[in-house]
Amino acid sequence: MAVGVHADELVIAGTRFGSRLLLGTGGFRSLDDLAAAIAASGAELVTVALRRVDPSARGSLVDVLDRAGVRLLPNTAGCFTARDAVLTARLAREAFATHWVKLEVIGDDRTLLPDALELLLAAEELVDDGFTVLPYTTDDPVLARRLEDVGCAAVMPLGSPIGSGMGIRNPYNLRLIREQTALPVVLDAGVGTASDAALAMELGCDAVLCASAVARADDPVAMARAMRLAVEAGRLARGAGRIPRRLYAEASTPEDGVAEFRAD
Amino acid sequence: MNVTVNGREADVPDGATVQSVLALLELAPDSRGVAVAVDAEVLPRGEWTSARLTPGARVEVLRAVQGG
Predict the structure, then answer these.
(1) Mind listing the pLDDT tens digit for each residue in A134-145?
(2) Catalytic one of A102, A178, A228, A238
């Protein structure tokens, strides 16, 4: 099967994306840095959050993202209950005129791990309300199935906690999630560097969402480009079919016809 | 009358609208990426100039920030 990178689109809820890298906008030092990183990443879907208006804030994030030509994916970051997450999603729908939402319902403020029960409740309510729900979830295959059952448009398991940069702690769970669902699987937290993103794609994820790994890198623009290439490389490698792992060597040079040199 | 705007007490004229609260926050009427909740319910943009706040109303005015 030939996999052309450019023809290999990501499809979420019927919407096509040429890039399999989603970018979080949090943590960039400036809006200029953000704009440059978006361009370097090739991302077409980027997250935004809602917070209380700060009259002293300068510059318009929405204008920057408009100019970048990206689609917005509002999140519900900071919500600890289904009720708050549902209200935040509805406010985001009003603010950004989109019914897409990256649903986050956090259960613990040190690890920022998802609260599975509240997440599922919120997902069900938002799907019923007409939202396209992309839930940030643990890497639990059973929870992923439940989220699919209530009508989510994708599942977005973590590799490790948000902003931890610890990569993919349980690749086997990601494989299980991949095997059992027809939904797009987006690795959504824990990516630290390009190899983590490539591994996610090699494991069969459909896309990777990066935020801190790019925004907090010493050179966010260079890291954005690295992530773009890593996602493409991992996707190609997945399609190409890797060789099995073996304990012992298997010669790549023919073993027949080896010359015999006799020292007399 | 007193209302609460983003967690702070504010004294506004009786029958004030959300639009007048936005002005307090130096937000233009056509501000993009802004949403308003009154008493934990979304107030659609189309009602900002017509809906009247009641005493003690809790108003949350939110806008886009970098995140996630």
Answers:
(1) 999 999 999 999
(2) A102
